[in-house]
Amino acid sequence: MFNLGTGELLLIFLVILLLFGAKRLPELARGLGKGINEFKDAVETGKQGIMDAKDGVDLEGDSKKEEE
Question: Considering the domain boundaries, does residue 4 fall inside one?
Answer without folding.
Answer: no
